[in-house]
Amino acid sequence: MSRYAQQIGWSDVPHLSKDQQELLWSAIPPHQRDARTQGIPILGAGQIYPVPEDVFVCEPFEIPGYWPRAYGLDADWNRTAVCWGAWDRDSDIVYVYSEHFGGQEPPSIHADAIKRRGDWIMGAMDPSTNGKISPIDGRILAQEYLDLGISLVPADNAVEAGIFSCYQRLAAGRLKIFRTLRRLISEIRIYRRDENGKVVKEMDDMLDAMRYLIMTGMQHASIAPYELEQMESRVQERGRSSVTGY
After folding, report:
1. Selection from 108, 123, 131 nearest residue 153 by Cα
2. pLDDT recorded at residue 60
3. What is the domain extent for residue 119?
4. What is the phi/psi pair of residue 198, to 5°?
5. For the chain, where are the E strands, in sequence order?
6. What percent of the chain has pLDDT over 70?
7. Residue 71: pLDDT over 70
8. Whether the Cβ atoms of residue 127 and residue 90 lie closer than 8 Å to each other
9. Computed over its alpha carbons, how large is the radius of gyration of the chain?
10. Torsion from C-alpha of 60, 34, 184, 58, nearest 10 degrees
11. Displacement of CA 244 from its chain's centroid (Å)
12. CA 56-93-125 angle, 5° bins
């Protein structure tokens, strides 16, 4: 027996008039609107980030070179998730603009993917791997990444505090995610608690990486060395007299 699933939104059902849609919209809780109007699957009762996607999902754009960048890394021997963020300090908005996910490849493969996005970018990794492997193995794995030339600092793995920080930014529009980051967005849709209020540890590797990025990575965010050189050069040129040369 074969099955077929099709995502359907209000725009696909002509029997709902615009007036009816507006009436229904006003009666739907904000965290359920994407599910009911666009057919986006979420788990509403225990959803951890009940924020409409149109609040935090944005179209990709070229990140200005002077915005500091960092990444969060969640890794064990079976799955590795990395997400990169750039900080618009003027508006205090962090844009998560790139992601990498892989399973059961050696650390050298993931290290290469990290370096290609900028080997000068500092990352945050939880050496305890959030309990996914033993603390000793976690430290060994973290050291292996360091030996491969990856810049890392230990991540703050306070789960509830990290979730709260991410939620505050998401709800306030100060944490944006590029629409192209399908893995991260799909994890947000199903991120939930069980009947006892505990976080369900399934399909959340990228979300752990995002927590490390927000809690620790952005504190170590930096600008590309070549961009810093250009900025210093422009400052020096503006400070010199066109007449005297100094």
Report:
1. 123
2. 98
3. 67-227
4. -90, 145
5. 57-58, 69-75, 79-88, 93-103, 122-125, 152-154, 175-178
6. 80
7. yes
8. no
9. 21
10. 10
11. 50
12. 90
Annotate 44-68 with DSSP letters as a single string.
-TTBS----HHHHEE---PPPTTS-
Whether residue 46 is contained in a domain is answered as: no
Q: What band does 160 get if pLDDT is binned at 50, 70 and 90?
A: very high
61 in any annotated domain: no
3-state DSSP call for residue 111? Answer: helix
| pTM: predicted TM-score of the whole model, two decimal places | 0.76
The one-letter amino acid code at 183 reads: R
Name the one residue in this structure whose structure tokens are 């529009």.
Answer: 173
- Tell whether the model's pLDDT for residue 235 goes beyond 60: yes
How many structural domains is the chain composed of?
A: 1
CA–CA gap between residue 200 and residue 132 (Å, rounded): 14
CA–CA separation, 222 and 65 (whole Å):
10
Q: Please write the tens of the pLDDT for every residue from 167-205.
A: 999 999 999 999 999 999 999 999 999 888 889 988 999
Residue at 23 is within a domain: no
51 is a domain residue = no
Q: DSSP label at 94?
A: E
CB 150 within 8 Å of CB 107: no
**Residue 182, SS3 per DSSP:** helix
Task: Pull the structure tokens for residue 41.
Answer: 């699957």
- 9 has pLDDT over 80: no
Q: Parallel, antiparallel, or unpaired for β 93-103 and 79-88? A: antiparallel
How many whole angstroms separate alpha carbon 21 and alpha carbon 224?
48
Q: What is the CATH number of the domain that holds 86?
A: 3.30.420.280
